[in-house]
Amino acid sequence: TQNDPIRIEELARERLGFVRPGETVYQIVKEKSSK
Hints:
Elements: H1 5-16
């Protein structure tokens, strides 16, 4: 639902990259193939 705080946080994390203070974010970047 639109007013569910858990769902709002979930969307903020997915769409906006929201991170709580003290959390560490790891981003995996795939290298492009050299072939």
